Amino acid sequence: xxxxRKTLSGLxxxxxxxxxxxxxxxxxxxxxxxxLGPAEFGLIGMISVFVAIGTTIMDSGMSASLIRKRDANSExxxxxxxxxxxxxxxxxxIIFFLAPLISSFYNQPVLTGLIRVYGLSFIIAAFxxxxxxxxxxxxxxxxxxxQNMPGTIVGVSVGISLGYLxxxxxxxxxxxxxxxxxxxxxxxxxxxxxxSLDFSKRSAKFHFGFGYKxxxxxxLTTVYQNIYNIIIGKFYSARQLGFFERSKAFNDYPVNILxxxxxxVTYPLLxxxxxxxxxxxxxxxKIMRLxxxxxxxxxxxxxxxxHPLFQFALGDEWxxxxxxxxxxxxxxxxxxxxxxNLNVFKVYGRSEMFLKLEVIKKSIIxxxxxxxxxxxxxxxxxxxxxxxxLALFINTxxxxxxxxxxxxxxxxxxxxxxxxxxxxxxxxxxxxxHIHGIASIYLVGVxxxxxxxTYLSLNFIIKSTxxxxxxxxxKSKKLKI
Length: 481
Fold this sequence. Notes:
single chain, mainly alpha, 84% helix, disordered C terminus
């Protein structure tokens, strides 16, 4: 199979995996949100940082190292497997004993048990991280999708059942754990690789030497992605944190799906052509423009229809989350651009630059947090948007030297899409705000239709390059799965 066809096939199956399986999980959290309420989701928001840190330490950037190494062998796989497992066990022991202190910090005694149970997730994930990296490196996304499906179905069934039976926040915890457990078991059983005792100090030094900088970068990113949860959970109520956590989850879902799909496919793709700078530049530019063409209008549309969307999906109890959601949409439109620029550093093995930039960006966020905190929760939310924009300039500036695609060119390519999506937002908001007396579900439908019609019309008028690229993909008859 050619590289182009392999990439298109990967996109199709990764999109199917992400939209169908993660979509099921997302829908189940919407159902649970209606049953449980903001306070229970606030508790999950309080401990999410510790689970995310554990997952980052478990992987330690070594999966990316395996994917990047073209001649990785069984010795490499076994070495990374035992390193992943060992690191996850060490961190779990640490948070197990720290759990009472964390509960005391938030003044929420129930968190002790939640942390100790939820923390098992990254140990479970460690057993199949290498198997997943092998499939990713081979771009076998069809197999990944098929092997993830049973775990998602089991997890959603467990979560919905426990929620219906009145188990509160534990329904969220066991939904996630059961999903992870089943997925790991299937990946283990169906993999053509099994760990052996071939642990190599040389291999460990190579992969950890590359990965630990990504791990440190990931830890910084993880802590700062959750720092708002920590501050709101400490100084405000669990209910307020629940509003923020769900608005962020709603906001992150579409952009994380698109970014996850694109980076998952493009990282092994770009790694395979890392010696050809001109080709990487062309591929990157096309991917970046296509991703932004989809993400930008999606988030502007979501902001425009936020009130009826939350009313329909979560109920009136959650309407206080709408302002947070609308503000966060402003920063999410550029999230794929962040991810693609950072991917460049991994492709070229510049993990030290990856870490350096994370330190710079987190220093900026620290200042933003201090200033934003003076203005309450809304100040914190706005500070996150401003800091994200500053981070975007930093990422694009440093990555541009490697791919001959500078910041000015990137922003120039994004400008037509941004302007057309902005016009679409004002048109949709005007219409939504002047329609009264109909159910929220119909308002969502009207808003979505108006947004789509406005956006496509504007792009046809300006003869947008990404639009015609999308049409070419839809018309393509070369793709055979």
